[in-house]
Amino acid sequence: MSSETDGRAGDGKFGEYGGQYVPEVLMPALEELTDAYERYVLGNEDGFMDELRERLRDFGGRPTPLGRADQLSARYDREVYLKREDLLHSGAHKLNNALGQVLLAKYMGKERIVAETGAGQHGTATAMAAAHLDMPCEIYMGRKDINRQRPNVFRMRLNGATVTPVTVGRGTLKEAISETMRDWATTVENTHYVIGSVVGPHPFPSMVREFHAVISREARRQFAEQVGGLPDAVIACAGGGSNTMGTFEAFLDDEDVDLYAVEAGGSGLGVDDDAGVAPNSASLSTGTEGVLHGARTKVLQDPDGQIVESHSVSAGLDYAGVGPQLAHLVDEERVHAVNVDDDAALEGFHRLSNTEGVIPALETAHAFGYLEEYHQELGERVVINVSGRGDKDLETAIEETPNHDVPNAPDMDVFEGTGGM
Amino acid sequence: MGVEGAFGSEPAFVPYLAAGDPSVEASKAYVEALDRGGADVIELGLPFSEPIAEGPTIQGAVARALRAGMTPRRYLGFVRDVDTEAPLVCMTYYNLIYQFRDETERGGPDAFVHAAADAGVEGFVVPDLPVEEAGPMRRACDDAGVDLVSIVAPTTGDGRLRRLLEISSGYVYVQARLGVTGARDDVSGRTAETLARLQQYEAALPKAVGFGIRTGDHAERIVRAGADGVIVGSALVDVVADGHEAGDPVPDVADRLADLADELKTGAVRGRDPGPAEPERN
After folding, report:
1. How many domains does chain B have?
2. Is the C or the N end of chain A the one with fewer CB within 10 Å?
3. In which domain, by residue range, is A308 found?
């Protein structure tokens, strides 16, 4: 990667994408954060990265394993390996970034943490990191997401975080990010905003990618040691793109490794301009260039530039934008932007559960839906990132499975007359 | 006359309303009422779906205007039709400016800035466009002969302040407090501090203070602290919202707006009164 495109040029631009489109009141905080990122994260000043690595090992459980999926390998006549970020503490890759940013906030002398969350995975990881490092923490979460991700809401409360419902708009991730930015504009002098994905203004896209790059650095080394050489294809689901960028980062220079970002095709592609709704969250595959939440990137918008409401069966992918570096890598044809619909995601959810004994998050399940549909187009050796575990999605899976075409789902009759879980 | 020229010998009153809230026709009457009530410059909001710098009051106005069908093209028609003496400044977010395409398919901010200037807009305030990203917008505004107003926040340090003043024209929008827009019952002590810092720059632009001003007394104190004008949004939007909810006739709501505008303008002018300083009120 050239210095222009790897985000280290200092201006946070990835080609035409990225930048800092935020109110002036936040700009001094972004300057301060950029300085801290360069010194502590990139420069390991005061041993910051040493402490983070130690905490990720002792508190987080890193490294996570890379393991062969025997049944899937046989089914697809390929070597399929799973990078098990679902085994990271908190149950998803999100802790890599949350722990990194909360620790960074401590090094910067901040006294309070705010964060947004969609599915609740980032909120949970942030609440855990804040409890672990003894920082007060407030999480903004859309009303609709609170209702569909109840276990995570309770986990955040257990860890001592305040969970504040966001009721404007449709009550999902987009509104939660806007509301957290408003909090930060008010409290910026003593508060750090832990953005949960590779989105937002510089330095967040670069910094969040850097914290998650441990996924691909481990996976690349583990693959070389356990299997030998490099995989032919690496697959990760993509909403905002944090696990995607983390899973791809160490492979970006390996030009023979194909990289697939699997987005949520929802119930259909495209944007309904009249209704102001996209029945999907496929900003990389179908979005257009725009400015959202502090960055120029690919967004789901109507022809006027109003941001539309996205949709996915998976709350964690349900977002109208995507990280600017990922958008750039797609334009450069380094990353393939693909998508599968809700049906395929649920099929992938059940497939991994009943063939490999791993219950994936519905976000992650999109990557397995893609593998099922398109494995013949992939090379011989495939690595898939299991970005999170599916415990938080069990209620959704019970409700949604009967509404979709999922031939491999187990018989749900056991729940009849019990009113569900 | 231009935007800067509207800041004359008297302190200026700069009201904000969202175009199209709660309907195009009512909104036109409301903007004209502000003009009648003594507005010197009017910040006319073009509603965007993600107003990250706005508090609940203006978020509500934006939502009502979007529901009523306001779009960038209809906004240009609104600017052409509305009858005001005060120059109009377009307040909106960058994505709407950036996405607009005219028949030449000119990209970037040029198309909208030129179309808005043709319709009668004399300046822009773009809350999510800091000096780092403002280059293309600044050039488009220069080219179209309209102003680009910069926002100065309480957190803005001296280095940034200098850069902001270099690219700003028309006036400087001094954000009175941290946070987002919204009417308050007090005036932030940080306003005077920011105004004093701005005072150090010679030949500086007029300084208009916004965020939280609700009453004529607020306006008076802000001007006493050194402001050349007061910007009032949420307090006026509240009048629109209350009238809409109560189903009041448009002329009645317009009269209330004109009365509040008059109170705010009068308060601002009183702030410049050279008579003996009044005892501090609380």
Report:
1. 1
2. C
3. 61-90+213-403
> Is A75 among the domain residues?
yes
A168 interface with B at CB cutoff 8 Å: yes
Residues spanned by the domain of B195: 2-271
Which backbone phi and psi does A82 adopt, to 5 degrees?
-110, 125
- Asked if B175 lies within 8 A of A25 by C-beta distance, the reply is yes
* Cβ–Cβ below 8 Å for B95 and A28: no
Q: Active site residue: A116, A179, A309, A400, which one?
A: A116
Q: Which residues contact B45 (CB under 8 A, 6 or more apart)?
A: B16, B17, B18, B19, B58, B61, B62, B65, B91, B92
**Chain A residues in contact with B63 (beta carbon < 8 A):** 168
pLDDT band at A405, cuts 50/70/90?
Answer: confident
Count of CB pairs separated by less than 8 Å, A with B: 118
Q: Annotated catalytic, A392?
A: no
* Residue B193 at interface with chain A, using a CB cutoff of 8 Å: no
d(CA B15, CA B209): 11
DSSP, collapsed to helix, strand or coil, labels residue B165 as: helix
Work out the angle between the directed axes of helices A48-55 and A95-107 (0-180°, nearest 10).
140
- Which of A190, A208, A226 lies at the terminal end of a domain, its last residue? A208
Q: Is A275 on the interface with B (CB under 8 A)?
A: no
- Structure tokens of B280? 């501090």
Q: How far apart are CA A421 and CA A401, in angstroms?
A: 14
What is this model's ipTM? 0.94
- Measure CB to CB from residue B71 to each of A185, A304, A307 and give the nearest one: A304
Does the CB of A304 have a partner CB in chain B at under 8 Å? yes
A254, part of any domain = yes
Contacts of A133 (CB under 8 A, 6+ apart): A99, A102, A103, A106
